[in-house]
Write a sequence for this structure.
């Protein structure tokens, strides 16, 4: 067995979807080229952008930072990063420390924002309450709000997240199966909102399978936090993911075809189903909100944290 | 004929059941999915079709976690 590109016998991946065999160097190059191709094809970056990377210290965000940094080295963009510390004992601190080390290694502006500092409560404390709605509900909303705020404070023009091919395909299928046409209009490589307070979000890893991102960080010896969130549970996303992975065993291109199919109908979905943006402001924090309170503030009120 | 397995907290010597025993066979025996694991043979990344040899050092790294 030899690398399909250079003939090196030390093959590290056999791509089922294409039959391609790659050695370490050719694999690393193929991932980096593919991300750069996505950035160009989807016009994710403009010269002079300041990109805030949502950096958890996990494989996806570290890969996003690593590859976007090549654009920074070419003086195309500037990069900063934010790490959200949700307050999960025996889990989050390792990721935070790794994120800090990567930011220092690359010499980029970085800040760590904790739920405790921002809202006076940790996720662990929320999960001790009787009336909680499940960890992922709070984590998602608070994290999004913190990242958006950080982008404004740090003067970022784009927010880059580490969503990979598997994440994106799961989201497409979940929303389709749930009939959630509103959420279906919000997916894609680049998400813009008319509300100027919301920074444009980009997903440079959207076409890279999750396993290949894992292989990339190991191949490049990048320090990442490989661990499972203690609150991870059997979710609908998990069930959908299992079905898709099962199908992919015998149909190795199915994740790509799902993504391509969605991309073809995305425009029509947006024209047909996109809701108007929130014109109002949250009474408490001033963030854009369709209701009296934004999601984060209404959760805080329910939890008695206001 | 044996090899060393390193996986999370496991660091143990295991017997090679036959001459054509691959990393894929090992993953199956351990109940692990090749989708969530990358494998190293004597410190170098390899594919799951790789045959494990006598005295090999096999390291499995879990790269995908649920949630």
């Amino acid at each position: 067995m030899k690398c399909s590109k250079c003939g090196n016998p030390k093959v590290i991946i056999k791509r089922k979807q294409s039959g391609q065999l790659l050695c370490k160097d050719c694999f690393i190059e193929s991932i980096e080229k593919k991300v750069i191709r996505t950035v160009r094809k989807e016009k994710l970056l403009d010269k002079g952008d300041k990109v805030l990377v949502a950096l958890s210290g996990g494989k996806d965000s570290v890969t996003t930072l690593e590859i976007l940094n090549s654009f920074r080295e070419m003086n195309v963009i500037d990069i900063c990063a934010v790490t959200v510390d949700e307050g999960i004992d025996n889990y989050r601190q390792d990721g935070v420390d790794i994120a800090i080390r990567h930011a220092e290694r690359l010499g980029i502006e970085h800040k760590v924002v904790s739920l405790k500092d921002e809202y006076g409560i940790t996720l662990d404390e929320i999960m001790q309450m009787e009336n909680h709605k499940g960890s992922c509900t709070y984590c998602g909303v608070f994290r999004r709000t913190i990242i958006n705020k950080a982008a404004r404070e740090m003067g970022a023009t784009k927010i880059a997240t580490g969503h990979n091919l598997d994440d994106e395909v799961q989201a497409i299928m979940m929303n389709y199966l749930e009939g959630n046409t509103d959420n279906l209009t919000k997916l894609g490589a680049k998400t813009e909102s008319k509300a100027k307070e919301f920074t444009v979000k980009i997903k440079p890893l959207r076409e890279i399978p999750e396993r290949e991102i894992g292989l990339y960080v190991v191949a490049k010896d990048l320090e990442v936090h490989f661990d499972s969130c203690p609150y991870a549970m059997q979710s609908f996303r998990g069930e959908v993911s299992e079905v898709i992975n099962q199908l992919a065993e015998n149909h190795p291109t199915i994740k790509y075809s799902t993504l391509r199919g969605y991309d073809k109908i995305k425009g029509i979905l947006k024209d047909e189903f996109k809701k108007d943006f929130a014109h109002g402001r949250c009474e408490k924090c001033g963030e854009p909100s369709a209701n009296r309170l934004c999601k984060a503030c209404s959760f805080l009120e329910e939890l008695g944290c206001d | 004929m044996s090899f060393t397995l390193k996986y999370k907290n496991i660091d143990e010597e295991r017997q090679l059941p036959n001459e054509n025993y691959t990393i894929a066979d090992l993953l199956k025996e351990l109940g692990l999915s090749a989708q969530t694991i990358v494998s190293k043979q004597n410190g170098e990344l390899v594919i799951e079709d790789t045959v494990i040899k006598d005295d090999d050092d096999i390291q499995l790294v879990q790269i995908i976690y649920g949630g």
The mean pLDDT of chain A is 93. The interface with chain B takes residues 1, 10-14, 24, 59, 210-211, 213-215, 217-219, 226-229, 231-233, 235, 238, 245 of chain A (CB under 8 Å). The radius of gyration of chain A is 20 Å.
